[in-house]
Amino acid sequence: MKNTPSVARAARLLRAALFVSAFAALPAAAGALPFWMHLPEQASTYANEIDEMFHLIMWITGVIFVIVELMLLWFLWRYRHREGRTAHYTHGNNRLEVIWTIVPALICVMLALLSRHIWDQIKENMPHEAVEVHVTGEQFAWNFRYPGPDGKFDTADDILTLNQLHLPVGKPVIVTLTSKDVIHSFFLPEFRVKQDAVPGMHTRIWFEGNKVGHWEIACAELCGLGHFRMKGFITVDTPDDYQKWLAEQAAAQATEQAPAAAAPAAQTQATQVSEKGGNS
User: Fold this and answer.
1) Which residues in 49-171 belong to E strands, given as ranges?
2) Strand partners for 165
3) Is the pTM above the cut of 0.85?
């Protein structure tokens, strides 16, 4: 089938659009987004790499979207109804179909290759010598568990906090996520961290705070009627303040546990005294 003049013009227009979109990623190198599209502040070491990938995808898809919409408007105007004009049927253009199939495929492959490094860094390569915290989601709160002085989890000296996560600045942190009831999503926007907490599963993620500050922890999964109030707070401290906070939590927890531990001992002693009295 021979190409009609209109199809040939469309082909030239599409080639020009693809040429323009090839340079769409250039502003992304400088993060050139309007102020109303700026992302939250970057509070983790790998936040910048994630943002660069996001900006790249935003520019590619954004420019293509604008080009497609402009072409749509041009076709609406160019082929509007006119008296005396008859419609011409065309089956299609193989060249155009090949182009708009191969080009998106190449873009997707390129993005996959670029993001592979980031995925490996964040998901595959867990850092050594990291602070470890166990996080358990439940309706509707976050439970945090730190190892006590013995350095082991699930022992009597574990430090437990509710909706309060403290971490040292400049130190990698490995978080092990799980859930008591339904699926929750551990979301730290400023750290570019978002991971589901699934009942029966233990999922490990890591991040490293690059500045001292105080931010909110959200649940990004609809987990029930009280989902709106499920939030906690993350505080990145200086190393000294972090150790001071741990010591304060351990001391407060020991004070709370002392009466509970003394009660069974007192009960046992009273029973022994009663038995001695009965025997006499």
Assistant:
1) 131-138, 141-146, 159-162, 164-168
2) 234
3) no
Residue 276 confidence (pLDDT) above 60: no
Question: Do both 162 and 210 map to the same domain?
Answer: yes
- How far is 39 from 110, CA to CA, in rounded Å? 23
Q: How far apart are CA 76 and CA 56, in angstroms?
A: 30
- 216 vs 231: CA distance, rounded Å: 7
Question: pLDDT digit string (tens) for 8-32?
Answer: 666 666 666 655 555 555 555 445 5
Domain of residue 218: give its range.
131-262
Longest distance between any two alpha carbons in the chain, whole Å: 123
pLDDT tens for each residue of 68-102: 999 999 989 888 888 888 877 877 788 888 988 99
Residues 247, 217 share a domain? yes
8 Å CB contact between 159 and 249: yes
Q: Is residue 48 part of a domain?
A: yes
Question: Are 161 and 249 within 8 A, CB to CB?
Answer: yes
CB 147 within 8 A of CB 99: no
Q: Render the burial of 34-51: b for 16+ CB within 10 Å, e for the rest.
A: eeeeeeeebbbbbbebbb
Mark whether 221 and 145 lie in a shared domain: yes
Is 70 domain-assigned?
Answer: yes
**Number of domains forming the structure of the chain:** 2
Distance CA 251, CA 273 (A): 33
Domain-located, residue 141: yes
At 202, list the tokens: 């233990």
Residues 72, 21, single domain; the answer is yes
Q: Which of 8-12, 105-109, 151-155 has the lowest mean pLDDT?
A: 8-12
The pair of structure tokens assigned to 8 is 């040939």
Q: Which two tokens stand for residue 128?
A: 């050594």
CATH number of the domain to which 155 belongs: 2.60.40.420
